[in-house]
């Protein structure tokens, strides 16, 4: 079972919440995240944030870097 990650003083329990909240906290746009993880379209990030898609595990380290989060925590959240 995934464990919550604390972002901005709030515990978040799933990838879509973490991605959206942390992206907004850092002032990043969906295209910024898309470029950082190597996907062509910001629409993909929108789909992840809405819970319709998931991020491949091989992209989690890049996501953690741009979101300034621990990669291990994000990998555990994603599996």
- Total beta strand runs: 2
- The CA-CA distance between the termini, in Å, is 9 Å
> What strand line-up does the widest sheet have?
1-2
Beta-strand portion reads: 5-15%
The ordered string of helix (H) and strand (E) elements is EEHHHHH
| Rounded radius of gyration (Å) | 11 Å
Q: Looking at the structure, what is the overall shape?
A: globular
Percent in helix: 40-55%
Summarize the main sheet: 2 strands, antiparallel
**Secondary-structure class:** mainly alpha
Would you identify the regions where 5 or more consecutive residues have pLDDT less than 50? none
**Integer average pLDDT:** 88
Count helical runs.
5
Overview of the structural elements:
Strands 1-2 form a two-stranded antiparallel sheet. Helices cover 54% and strands 8% of the residues. It starts with a strand and ends with a helix. It has 79 residues and is mostly helical.
Secondary-structure blueprint:
Layout: E1 5-7, E2 10-12, H1 15-25, H2 30-37, H3 42-49, H4 60-67, H5 71-78
Antiparallel strand pairs: 1-2
């Amino acid at each position: 079972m995934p464990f919550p990650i604390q972002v901005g003083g709030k515990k978040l329990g799933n990838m879509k919440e973490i991605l959206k909240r942390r992206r907004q906290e850092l002032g990043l746009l969906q295209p910024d995240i898309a470029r950082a993880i190597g996907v062509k379209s910001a629409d993909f990030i929108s789909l992840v944030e809405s819970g319709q898609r998931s991020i491949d595990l091989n992209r989690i380290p890049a996501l953690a870097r741009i979101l300034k989060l621990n990669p291990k925590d994000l990998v555990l959240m994603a599996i």
